[in-house]
Amino acid sequence: MTKITIKILCLSNGHGEDAIAVNTLKHLQQTEIEIAALPLVGKGIAYQLANIPLISVTETLPSGGFIYMDHNQLWQDLQSGLIGLTLKQYQQVKQWVKQQQDCNLLILAVGDILPLLFAWTSGVKYAFIGTAKSNYYLNQPEKGSIYYPWERWLMQSPRCIGVYPRDSLTAVNLAKYPIRVFDYGNPMMDIFEDIDQPTNPITTILLLPGSRPPEAETNWKIILQGVDSVINTLTEESLVFLAAIAPTINLDNLETTLIQQGWEKIPEIIPYLESKARIFRQRQAILALTQEKYSTCLLQAQIAIAMAGTATEQFIGLGKPAIAIPGPGPQYTPFFANKQQKLLGESLIIVEKPKEIGEILRSIHKDPVKLAKIAVNGQKRMGKPGASQNIARSLLSQFF
Predict the structure, then answer these.
(1) What is the chain's Cα-based Rg?
(2) Closest CA to 145 of 173, 113, 180, 111
(3) Does residue 312 contact residue 304 with C-beta atoms inside 8 Å?
(4) In what order do the strands lie in the sheet with 322-324?
(5) DSSP-based three-state secondary structure for 307
(6) Looking at residue 69, what is its pLDDT?
């Protein structure tokens, strides 16, 4: 009797979505299931680092996947071959399904409607981890669903074995429809699973410029204006700035900007960072550039200066405040920042000018009542670790 092979193809559309997918897939890697992935945006670095094979190399378009925020970005993507790329990816999914013989197949869609639509068109069973939408985005979060009727229609298919929203509020409202909804929390927070938060007496500030070049380099220059404001305001305190930089960003360009702005590179080592971290000093402050120890940076810091999507949400999920500066985009625009604030509530403070950050940071840092409220709010909005393992178990029980 021929043994039937079980295969999963994961579709995701963004750097953060890739990482969320990997959090879940790593629990399935421990089984006999064969896993592959198709990142619909970017190069799929998270999959590569996790040794998950890609069925195709993906092209990178100008918007980095944020066409819905800027019509100019949509036009640039169209000129760069967006329609052709989407059709090609659709064909790759259909071809992957066709090539599998005597196999049980499952498509795992992570992100928004695009991977969900591709999963539906595959003709096989699928599941959906919804990372992009939350009922907190609505003006009346308790009423209705953030998902459009056509999105819910895709989730109601008999072939859709499970939908995993990012928070309880979204799950409760989605469960009012004939959809197999499972409220297991947010796999975005699982990078901190089984890691204790340290007690750090030094004022430590996280810097998050985002993960998409060249936007991150532009954001970096804006963030450094905020850093300068903090140094000029908290003149009596020793300060540590931890710049958690995505592997997609060229550190040399960020270092050049630091040196141009008067930072001195020093041979010092910060104990909880890896030896490759680049350390700089200016007055009473030390700044570390690192592309490793990402979760450690988020855990060590007490507050963030942020122009990022997923990383900002993960930091706030730890119960900590972040100060956001909207930039020129294409991702971290005023539209995106305001939308993110709806999601994260009082934990995210938006400023228009970087020079305002010093005073705002000082007022928050010395207000234990506000910090306590922010801690509760962040954990409520983002959920606790453990969702990835529960989703993996659910996929196995629903599928087999």
Answers:
(1) 21
(2) 173
(3) yes
(4) 264-266, 278-282, 285-290, 239-244, 203-208, 303-306, 322-324, 348-350
(5) coil
(6) 47
Tens digit of each residue's pLDDT (9 = 90 or more) over 57-84: 666 655 555 444 455 554 455 444 467 7
CA 289, 293, 295, 300 torsion: positive or negative? negative
Q: State the span(s) of the chain assigned CATH 3.40.50.2000.
A: 5-191+384-393, 203-382
Backbone angle region of 384, left / alpha / beta, with phi > 0 → left and psi within -120 to 50 → alpha: beta
* pTM for this entry: 0.85
User: pLDDT, tens digit, for every residue of 132-189?
Assistant: 899 999 989 999 999 999 999 999 999 999 999 999 999 999 999 999 999 998 998 9
CA distances from residue 357 to 204, 220, 364, 397 in whole angstroms, order as listed: 14, 15, 10, 49
Two tokens, residue 79? 């000129």
- Top CATH class, 5-191+384-393: alpha beta
Which one of 3.40.50.2000, 3.40.50.2300, 3.40.50.2020, 3.30.390.50 gives the CATH number of domain 203-382?
Answer: 3.40.50.2000
* DSSP E strand stretches across the chain: 5-12, 34-39, 103-111, 125-130, 160-164, 203-208, 239-244, 264-266, 278-282, 285-290, 303-306, 322-324, 348-350
pLDDT profile of the chain (400 residues), mean per 10: 74 87 91 90 87 81 50 49 75 88 90 93 95 91 93 97 94 96 92 71 95 92 97 95 92 96 93 90 97 92 95 95 94 92 96 96 93 94 88 86
